[in-house]
């Protein structure tokens, strides 16, 4: 992975470039990295703030021979890879909040955006966008994010080498991806659960169809979140914003 790297100074969004490259037929493992994004995208059509030289903004193109329903597992795998890399490079202890946020000291440090193109029940390409706040100072975040977002350097008290972080993420990713393709999701699920903060806690899940409250029981083999409400009914949540504790 990452043997072919497109390194850009300034782009609208690395996701957009990766989609075009995937469409043009580039091989699995192609990576797009940018120093700055002028319209970085987050989940649920939100903007992702990506100022120059401060973060890791990148998109990885995968072409797994899998049905589209398996794509969410790759998001969870990515979260494990980034968490392991952050641990190794900085010594910090990140937590994963389902499905794809990585928090340090309860503040969001990393976001993952997985987008897929599929045809006839087969994945054509999966684009995994990773946004990592690395060297921003608090003043470099918009005011409204001060209480909910952070960067590695804020938490660590010193700057972090972004190239080393990217390299370590790719190594961890490659290792987990091989494991996943050989043995399936189970070993990844165990690792993911060891970093997850929401499991076993009371959560509020805001989905497009409404809000659910209850206890997070765990995730299924497919990476779907199981929430047990106060009537002990288990709900399967594919996509939501999660708030922990109430
Ligand atoms: C989230 O909402 O938590 C996901 C954020 C994903 C941001 C990354 S930065 C690199 C890639 N390019 C984008 O425009 N978005 C993703």
Automatic annotation (TrEMBL):
UniProt-annotated binding residues for biotin: 37, 41-43, 108
BPL/LPL catalytic domain boundaries: 1-181
Assigned EC number: 6.3.4.15
Reaction equations catalysed: biotin + L-lysyl-[protein] + ATP = N(6)-biotinyl-L-lysyl-[protein] + AMP + diphosphate + H(+)
Membrane-crossing residue ranges in chain numbering: none
Similarity field: Belongs to the biotin--protein ligase family.
Entry function: Acts both as a biotin--[acetyl-CoA-carboxylase] ligase and a repressor.
Name this protein carries in UniProt: Bifunctional ligase/repressor BirA
Gene: birA
